[in-house]
Design brief:
184 residues, 9 strands, 40% strand, five-stranded antiparallel sheet, Cyclic Phosphodiesterase, Chain: A, alpha+beta
């Protein structure tokens, strides 16, 4: 049975709590459950079992060193001016982050998956919007454009399966890949 999989960097609980506390309680803006907040490195839909196994093998071979990543700057992705996603940025053009993203994409390609062709904009989704006008969020976005959560230490990334339910997605950690510093 095909799976929905994604590769992500988890956030420390303290970072998740800071992001949860930002919730402006605006009608139509659904804040992400803190337990679901993460930085996606790659998303793969309808993955058959044989490709799943190959992807796990390729991901586990990725070698990287631990690094620090700044988390700051709230923004929104919009469709036709209407906000759809509220996010916080991570590591503006951070070389270690882009390197690990590239290696995850190469692992997926080597496992037989189609590469993601859209430009990658690293972010953490903190809310989803439905029927929210641009003006409703304007003051919140302006007030938090430079919101600084601090830095996080990236020591691992994880492969998750994602099951869609009426109550929202259920993410299950399938495997972890630790940095070489942590393997000692």
């Amino acid at each position: 049975m095909p799976k929905r999989l994604f590769v992500a960097i988890d956030l420390p609980d303290s970072t998740r709590q800071l992001l949860a506390d930002l919730d402006p309680d605006i009608r139509g803006v659904r804040w992400t459950d803190p337990a679901q907040m993460h930085l996606t490195l790659g998303f793969f839909d309808d993955i058959p079992d044989d490709v799943d196994s190959a992807l796990r093998e390729k991901l586990s071979a990725i070698d990287f060193g631990a690094f620090f990543l700044p988390v700051r700057g709230v923004g929104a992705f919009s469709a036709k001016g209407v906000p759809k996603i509220v996010w916080i940025g991570v590591g503006k053009a951070h070389p270690h982050l882009f390197q690990i993203h590239k290696r995850v994409q190469e692992a997926a390609l080597a496992a037989g998956l189609e590469p993601e062709l859209r430009p990658w904009h690293p972010h953490i989704t903190i809310a989803r919007c439905r029927d929210v006008g641009p003006r409703s969020l304007r003051n919140f976005l302006k007030a938090n454009a430079n919101f600084d959560v601090g830095i996080i230490r990236v020591e691992a990334f994880h492969l998750y399966s994602s099951k869609l339910t009426p109550a929202g997605p259920i993410h299950t950690r399938e495997m972890s890949v630790h940095c070489r510093d942590e393997k000692l």
